[in-house]
Design goal:
Elements (H helix, E strand, L loop, with lengths): L2 H14 L5 H17 L12 H12 L4 H20 L25 H8 L7 H16 L3 H5 L6 E2 L4 E5 L5 E5 L2 H12 L24 H15 L7 H14 L4 H8 L4 H24 L2
Antiparallel strand pairs: 1-2, 2-3
Helix pairs in contact: 1-2, 3-4, 5-9, 6-8, 6-10, 10-12, 11-12
Length: about 290
């Protein structure tokens, strides 16, 4: 079979039978294109050899590609070859090849001062500024994921009880306490500019000027804008506020289990990374103090 036809069948199999996301399929499509560009004499499935996987992965390493990228391309090729074996298009035993270990990067956390500068950046004389300030305050006060923030509805917020309830990964429900300070900005937005929004009847809290829920892409762009306005040197994203929420809680004596529950992490090891960030920040401050003595 022509190799490009085989790839088409493989991608169709991923989409229809496996329910793989569009993003993963696009990534796999690009990975397979690079693989074929490298082995440009491979025209049909008969030309494929298992050793090509190892050779391609080795070449990616020599090109200093990120470990995460190499691991994804390895997974793509292994799944592709496994699919071809299952379809009877090739005969092969697929061994485990040596893979690079994925780098564990500590999450970016900025100082309390930078967080405060970011939160104060929206122009409160503008309707969008009042909404964005409420979004930023709620996100930093609760550690919500971006998807959880933009999906918030009125029913999710218990103003008297100061609790926000969300459905996180795996549709798991959790309730997170929220400060009176953040709720104050949220109330001002709801009772003010939101009532004049064309979508004021919507169940969703945060709306764009057309009355539709604010998108992830738009909020990301707004955070980048406020980063520049605040003069913050680090390249931050909405998720940075979630990292800051966790780290700043731990720095102020919060228990690891409590932070795990508020973040909605299924494993405590996922939350423990923030203890490393917190320790690193404390030692950095100590080093600066010591250098002045």
């Amino acid at each position: 079979m022509e190799i490009r036809e085989a790839i088409s069948l493989f991608l169709q199999h991923l989409q229809v039978e496996k329910g793989v996301s569009r993003t993963t399929i696009e990534n796999y499509k690009e990975d397979l294109k690079l693989f074929l560009d490298y082995f440009n004499e491979t025209k049909t499935t008969d030309d494929l050899m298992i050793q090509q996987i190892a050779e391609f992965i080795q070449k990616e390493g020599e090109d200093n590609k990120a470990a995460s990228t190499i691991l994804r391309r390895y997974s793509c090729l292994k799944n592709f070859f496994t699919f071809l074996v299952g379809e009877g298009l090739i005969e092969a035993d697929i061994p485990e090849f040596e893979k690079p270990k994925k780098d564990k990067k500590l999450p970016l956390v900025v100082s309390n001062e930078d967080v405060e500068a970011l939160l104060e950046s929206p122009d409160m004389t503008k309707e969008s500024g009042q909404r964005d300030r409420a979004m930023l305050e709620v996100m930093y006060a609760t550690g919500l994921r971006v998807s959880e923030l933009i999906s918030l509805q009125f029913k999710n917020v218990d103003f008297p009880g100061k609790i926000i309830t969300v459905f996180g990964k795996g549709n798991k429900q959790r309730s997170v306490p929220v400060s009176s300070f953040a709720l104050e900005y949220l109330s001002k937005y709801i009772d003010g500019v939101r009532k004049k929004n064309p979508g004021h009847g919507s169940n969703y809290l945060f709306l764009n000027k057309q009355g539709h829920p604010v998108s992830r892409v738009y909020f990301f762009k707004q955070v980048k804008h406020y980063e520049m306005t605040a003069g913050i040197d680090d390249a931050i994203s909405p998720h940075t506020l979630r990292h800051c929420f966790a780290t700043h809680l731990l720095e102020n004596g919060a228990e690891l289990r409590a932070v795990q529950e508020m973040l909605g992490h299924s494993k405590i090891s996922t939350t423990q990374v923030y203890t490393q960030v917190s320790t690193k920040r404390i030692m950095s401050a100590y080093d600066r103090y010591s250098s002045r003595k």
